[in-house]
From TrEMBL:
Annotated region (Disordered), positions in chain: 249-384
Stretch forming the signal peptide: none
Name of the molecule in the record: Uncharacterized protein
Keyword check for Transmembrane helix: yes
Pfam families: Methyltransf_16
Comp. bias (Low complexity): 351-360
Lineage, highest ranks first: Eukaryota, Viridiplantae, Chlorophyta, core chlorophytes, Chlorophyceae
Start-end of Basic and acidic residues biased regions: 331-347
Membrane-spanning residues: 79-98
Biased composition (Gly residues): 361-384
Entry keyword Electron transport: no
Naturally occurring in which organism (per UniProt): Pleodorina starrii
Keywords: Membrane, Transmembrane, Transmembrane helix
Biased composition (Acidic residues): 260-272
InterPro entries, sorted: Methyltransf_16, SAM-dependent_MTases_sf
Amino acid sequence: MSKSRDAFRSDESWERWNTHQTTMVEQEVFGTVLRFVQDPSSEHLGTTVWDASVVLAKWFEKNIRKGDFSRAKVRGKRAIELGAGMGLAGMAFAMVGGDVMLTDTADVLGLLRINYETNLSPAAVRLARGHQHGTWADSAGSVAVAELDWTKPEQVHAPPLKPPYDFVLAADCIYHETLTEHFHRTVMDVTNEKSTVVVCNELRSHSVQGRFMDLFTATHSIKTVPHSKMDDTYQHPNIFIYIMKRKKKQPGAKGGGGGGEEEGEEEGEEEGGGAAATAAAAAGEGRDAAAPETSGRPQAQQEEGRPGGDEATTTGSGNGAEAAGPGVVSEMERSEASEAVKGETGERLAAGDAAAAAAEVGGGGGGGALGNGVTAGGEGAADG
């Protein structure tokens, strides 16, 4: 069942997947159904297809014919996805024509590699080409998988990574303030002034969003994609897409802060400017500007952190564990937080409160903040 954009603006119309209870997620992109395996028993949040990756993948699909993300502009360009998780957004970019390096922490790579082999490996692309001549498969870019932990800067310059990249992609990676600092440093390490950074994120915490904007407005120009320019079905009021470019350094300037803004503005893009600007953008489209501190992914998961180069910082714990250092969360804390989230979800499901339970897990692949993720059967067909 397909829903209009307005249908997804009402909480009452959400149809959520309980993706933490399934081992397979299917998502249609460019007229092809991609299949992703995931581990519902894992305490690592990177093993789930999150909503923002679906929104970003469908936005790439919508822009394949014209603009800076068209096939003509993307084909042959080098891209890296940070915190790729199950790899949906990066694979969609490869279907446009980019050569994509999918990266995440070591404990996520097993599932990520399986999904790569299933959907975008050379053998999978050849098979798709045989069945769908004249579609994305004829001009798909290459895909590779590599480890990258944002808390380990030395990995950025270790093979097979070869920065700087033309494009940096990230979906649902901003949910803890300290993690955001690691993310910003990693983005700076893998880009130069010619690189384009695309971040799709769900607004859950205004303080985290504010920190994200503070860090990136100092070094980048930021443009927000209006919801009217996103896919009509696969969007949500609290999920935003940001397009960022490094500010050009002024003569005599020191450090990476840079000076003037990039000239020009893509059609249909709005200038970013902090958490307030994000809220104002939502309000301007008739949305709730005062998003709750947790929308979709629960607070326990925010503080816990999701593998994606992404251990959240913890200064202490209620169970007597020693305080962790910057960018570190203990295995015990990770396990306890994850089990608490899943336990609460199970209780709500047992009580018949499916909507509340789905909101708690905030899953992806058409779940969480989005709708039911039913394949569109060729919606937004690929460029011939």
